[in-house]
Write a structure and sequence with these properties.
Blueprint lengths: L1 E9 L1 E12 L4 E11 L4 E5 L2 E5 L3 E5 L6 E9 L7 E7 L2 E7 L2 E9 H12 L6 H26 L8 E3 L3 E4 L11 E2 L16 H9 L3 E5 L2 E2 L4 E2 L39 H8 L12 H7 L12 E7 H12 L6 E9 L5 E8 L3 E5 L1 H7 L10 E8 L2 E10 L7 E2 H9 L4 H8 L4 E4 L3
Parallel strand pairs: 1-13, 12-20, 16-23
Antiparallel strand pairs: 1-10, 2-3, 2-6, 2-7, 3-4, 4-5, 6-9, 7-8, 9-10, 11-12, 14-15, 14-24, 17-22, 18-19, 19-20, 21-22
Helix pairs in contact: 1-2, 1-3, 2-3, 2-9, 5-8
Length: 441
């Protein structure tokens, strides 16, 4: 099974072909450094001193796929996150260059199992424990195949898929794979991290993918839309509270502990306050350096306070931030009012009150984007007003967890693996009611 992954977009794409590649049906061979830039009728391919106008799309196919690779320059990783950066990345498979939104996008075509080698090494450390790597191989494979199925179903619908609802009173949006029309998935956190073959360097990663080859999670004969996040904060969230309003029974809230029974109802504000200010004994509550180094890459370890955290904003600072991030002038912000919480305590509808206007925003990622210059760790937070001499000075957000919290909790799963749980037990914990099925060999 082959897949397509969007890697990087820009007015031009610089790349280096390591090995011989054939360009489309023309059959001309290329190797070495090349650049492609847009022009009025397509693109200009620059190879050495030669400049060749060509129509898009272009497709560079390796003549020896087992050894040939291409390197893309200036690939952005961690888009909009606090650790966003650029790096060169190397890939195997076919390189396709397409026009998308007035830019050129580099797309990688490759077999699904080879894609997984990089994904589970990019999402985590390639030295993670065997059972954790196996668990992630199964959920990453399941998620991708489920997205391909959903794409086919959406193409057959008569009405357009909507993930944005906005009027004068509310701004509700969720961010999902449907944002990509010209390839299966992107290469960044919006879908699954896929950072090239330099990430797939360890024998344990290869063994985990091979040991689970073709295995996917199934719920009532349908492949599961398996989701995961860094740290649930103690309780996982329902799918419909983060993405489209379509409940998935295997993505229901659980307590991240040996007994998955939920604590007090966290949709109630008072219960959320007590929960977020506590430090419950759950799997993802750990400071074990060895466990964390397994699941967190170097740039992820730049975030040390993922289980419970705190952010403070001055009144003017927050007003300016919301004006920039939402393009709405609230005047001076006077209140942040949680209107609706999910089962993990994550806010899914938040009212922002200001001296000029008020607005209700959701779902969780829009809230996180609005309240940070990158992404707030999660939307599971409580709001405290900071006052001085009876005057509002700012706001303190006390929060729990890192990410949307749906499905597998990577930190929690790492702890489970360290305690001897098998990958099947880990998946049964985070995706209740599902089963593993081998779809191909």
């Amino acid at each position: 099974m082959n897949i397509t992954v969007g890697i990087v977009s820009g007015p031009g794409i610089r790349f280096f072909l390591r090995g011989a590649y054939r360009l489309g049906e023309e059959g001309r061979r290329y190797t070495g450094a090349l650049t492609v830039t847009r022009n009025a009728t397509g693109c200009t391919l620059v190879s050495g001193t030669e400049k060749l106008p060509l129509p898009l799309p272009l497709e560079f196919v390796p003549l020896e796929p087992e050894v040939a690779e291409f390197e893309l320059a200036d690939v952005t990783i961690g888009i909009d996150f606090h650790w966003e950066r650029k790096e060169n990345q190397r890939f195997r498979g076919t390189l396709r260059l397409i026009e998308e939104n007035g830019k050129i996008t580099a797309v990688n075509l490759l077999p699904l199992e080879e894609y997984l080698l990089s994904v589970i090494s990019s999402e985590m450390n390639a030295t993670s424990s065997e059972e954790l790597l196996k668990a992630h191989a199964v959920i990453s494979r399941s998620w991708l195949v489920a997205q391909q199925q959903k794409s086919r179903e959406l193409k057959g619908q008569r009405t357009a898929y909507r993930s944005l609802f906005r009027n004068e009173q509310e701004y509700i949006r969720w961010f999902d794979r449907e944002d990509h029309l010209h390839y299966d998935v992107c290469a960044d956190d919006h879908c699954q991290r896929y950072q090239g073959i330099q990430k797939a360097t360890t024998r344990p990663v290869y063994n985990a993918v091979q040991a689970t080859r073709g295995e996917v999670l199934i719920y009532k004969e349908r492949i599961c839309d398996a989701r995961f996040s860094k740290c649930c904060g103690g309780v996982s969230e329902s799918f419909e509270n983060v993405w489209e309003p379509a409940p998935h029974p295997y993505l229901k809230p659980i307590c991240d502990a040996p007994d998955p029974a939920l604590p007090a109802d966290l949709t109630v504000e008072a219960n959320s306050l007590r929960w977020i200010q506590s430090r419950p004994e759950v799997f993802c509550h750990t400071q074990d350096v060895d466990v964390l180094s397994e699941v967190l890459n170097d740039y992820d370890r730049e975030t040390p306070d993922f289980f419970r955290w705190e952010v403070c904003y001055g009144r003017e600072e927050l007003s300016a931030l919301l004006r920039e991030r939402l393009e709405v002038d609230f005047g001076e912000v006077t209140g942040l009012i949680p209107l609706e919480r999910g089962a993990s305590g994550r806010i899914i509808r938040l009212r922002i009150e200001g001296t000029k206007r008020s607005l209700v925003i959701g779902k969780e990622l829009l809230i996180r984007k609005a309240l940070s210059r990158s992404h707030l760790y999660s939307s599971a937070f409580v709001v405290e007003k900071i006052t001085g001499n009876g005057i509002l000075q700012g706001f303190r957000l006390r929060g729990a967890g890192w990410g949307h919290g749906v499905g597998l909790c990577q930190i929690g799963a790492a702890v489970m693996s360290s305690r001897g749980y098998s990958y099947r037990e880990i998946l049964a914990h985070y995706f209740p009611g599902s089963r593993i099925e081998k779809q191909y060999h």
